[in-house]
Amino acid sequence: FSAIGYDACYLLKLAIEAAGTVEHAAVNEELHKISGYQGALALYEAEEDGDMFNTINIVKVDNGVYTKVA
After folding, report:
1. How confident is the model at residue 1 (pLDDT cuts 50, 70, 90)?
2. DSSP code of residue 51
3. Cβ(70)–Cβ(59) under 8 Å?
4. What pLDDT does 68 receive?
5. Which of 28, 38, 45, 62 makes a 20 to 30 Å CA pair with 7?
6. By the 8 A CB rule, do 69 and 58 touch?
7. pLDDT (tens digit, 9 = 90+) per residue, 20-70?
8. Closest CA relative to residue 39, chosen from 24, 55, 25
9. Cα distances (Å, whole numbers) of residue 14 to 1, 18, 28, 39
10. Kind and range of the H or E element at 53?
11. Cα 66 from Cα 1, distance rounded (Å)
């Protein structure tokens, strides 16, 4: 779960930096613009309604070879 928390904090950091303020409306607007952020856990995209969508890959390692499972 620590990777999820790390990603959430870093997404917030990016939004605050882009907004140039910690004012709620400005930060929220910047969060809605995030696209293609590769975090520790997943690749994140903000959807039109503001929900954050992420893609997580599950892989199997067999003799040092990574194979995508899902």
Report:
1. low
2. P
3. no
4. 82
5. 62
6. yes
7. 999 999 999 999 999 999 998 888 998 888 788 887 778 889 999 988 887
8. 55
9. 20, 6, 11, 12
10. strand 52-55
11. 23
Map residue 31 onto helix, strand or coil: helix
User: Which amino acid is present at 43?
Assistant: L
Instruction: Report pTM.
Output: 0.74
Distance CA 31, CA 51 (A): 9
| Contact criterion met (CB below 8 Å) for 45 and 54 | yes
Tokens of 11: 């997404």
Q: Model confidence over 6-23: pLDDT tens digits?
A: 999 999 999 999 999 999
